[in-house]
Design brief:
Elements: H1 2-6, E1 14-19, E2 31-38, H2 41-53, E3 58-61, E4 67-69, E5 74-81, E6 86-91, E7 94-100, H3 105-114, E8 117-118, H4 130-135, E9 139-140, E10 143-144, E11 149-156, E12 162-166, H5 178-181, E13 185-196, H6 199-216, H7 236-242, E14 249-250, E15 253-255, E16 263-265, H8 271-289, E17 298-300
Parallel strand pairs: 2-5, 3-5, 4-17
Antiparallel strand pairs: 1-2, 6-7, 7-13, 8-13, 9-10, 11-12, 11-13, 14-15, 15-16
């Protein structure tokens, strides 16, 4: 396998039995059989071909910010997209910014500040990449990716061709896009609809959101963000708090004392710890309120 892979990408971009705890914001996860950093679409296509020929499962990860990887890790290949290009096209005060899927929200936000483009401020502190954030329609502080995405280009893993979907084909809703179900599609790049703004105003809004995030969320501890999905007409974090779960621990996993909607890795937590804690909370909420709450985070591996 290593010989085949090194014909596609440099040897120093291929890692065998790589601990996924190094590549998730939860800092949890056992080893992936192969972890490969991919920088071009052509490399990506060739790795997909190898995975098909060898009948090996393939996964694509961004910043690992919305995923819990189990303790025995992942059998197969995990690809980390290292495609980070940005282009901007102006029409008057409007701007279309084309950005590749591997760029982090933080770095994209910095680019937009430097170019005085507004509309992305809500996402500046979301700890993910462009591709992952589009896939789950990430949102915060009154904004969602659906508000600014104009077009997404993706690679179909079956025919290895590129396709583009306009915003009206993406079926965005709460933490959902068409790519949640379209599992054989890998987001390559996207176009965003933004506007010219004033740098000082953009920076002030980002600072305001950042301060609010620091005050309300446990950003100083490893986590995968908000653990549970929202339920219409039901405030999940409030129910968890009122059920006395703030500070509740299973092993190294703990319900944040700052925000009950977050499970944090407080001290060498395992995926088993987190999943046991999720079950305890879910069962308690179901029994007390008759409401079924489900994880927002994705769970991979074995």
């Amino acid at each position: 396998m290593i010989d085949k892979l090194t014909k596609v990408v440099a040897r120093d971009k291929i890692f065998k039995s790589e601990l996924m705890s190094r590549h998730t914001t939860f800092k949890i996860g056992g080893p992936a059989d192969y972890f490969i950093i991919v920088s071009t679409v052509d490399e990506l296509k060739e790795i997909i071909k190898i995975s098909k020929d060898e009948n090996i499962p393939l996964y694509v990860i961004g910043n690992g910010s919305n995923v819990l990887i189990k303790d025995n890790g992942i059998r197969g290949i995990v690809i980390k997209l290292d495609m980070k290009g940005v282009k901007t096209f102006y029409t008057g005060d409007d701007a279309i910014v084309e950005v590749e899927a591997g760029l982090s929200n933080a770095l994209f936000s910095k680019y937009l500040v430097d170019n005085e483009l507004t509309g992305f401020e809500f996402a500046a502190g979301i700890p993910g990449t462009i591709g992952g954030s589009i896939r789950m329609n990430a949102g915060a502080f009154g904004g969602e990716f659906k508000d600014i995405v104009e077009e997404v280009t993706f690679l179909d893993m079956d025919d290895l061709k590129l396709y583009s979907y306009r915003d009206n084909m993406l079926n965005f809703s709460y933490r959902y896009s068409t790519f949640i179900d379209k599992k054989r599609a890998i987001i390559i790049k996207a176009r965003f609809k933004l506007k010219k703004g004033k740098r000082s105003d953009i920076e002030a809004r980002i600072a305001e959101i950042s301060n609010e995030r620091k005050t309300k969320q446990p950003i100083d501890k490893p986590s995968a963000g908000s653990t549970f999905r929202r339920v219409d007409g039901f405030i999940t974090a409030k129910a968890i708090d009122e059920s006395g779960f703030k500070g509740y621990k299973v092993g190294g996993a703990e319900v944040s004392t700052k925000h009950a909607g977050f499970i944090i890795n407080n001290k060498n937590a395992t995926a088993k710890d987190v999943l046991e804690l999720v079950d305890i909370i879910s069962n308690s909420i179901k029994e007390k309120y008759g409401v079924e709450i489900k994880p927002e985070i994705e769970i991979w591996g074995e």
